[in-house]
From TrEMBL:
GO terms for molecular function: transposase activity. This is Transposase IS30-like HTH domain-containing protein. Residues 1-42 form the Transposase IS30-like HTH domain. Pfam families: HTH_38. Signal peptide: none annotated. GO terms for cellular component: cytosol. Transmembrane segments: none annotated. One of its GO terms (biological process) is transposition.
Length: 68
């Protein structure tokens, strides 16, 4: 369900290589809906940043643990 930091860096590299979302999803072993959601959440003015996406995911995880 979740993406690892390695998968996020792989996504970033594959986007730079102009791979389609369908190809990227196959390569990282996730459903294309997971990839689509990841890109929707973490696509910024300068494109997708794996580092920023992971920082956001870590922050969300931290906030969920603190609220329980």
């Amino acid at each position: 369900k979740h993406l690892t930091p390695e998968q996020r860096y792989q996504i970033e590299a594959l986007l730079v290589a102009k791979k389609s979302q369908k190809e990227i999803a196959l390569i990282i072993g996730k459903d294309k809906s997971v990839l689509s959601r990841e890109l929707k959440r973490n696509n910024h003015k300068r494109g997708y940043s794996a580092r920023m996406a992971q920082m956001y995911a870590d922050e969300v995880h931290r906030n969920q643990r603190n609220s329980q």
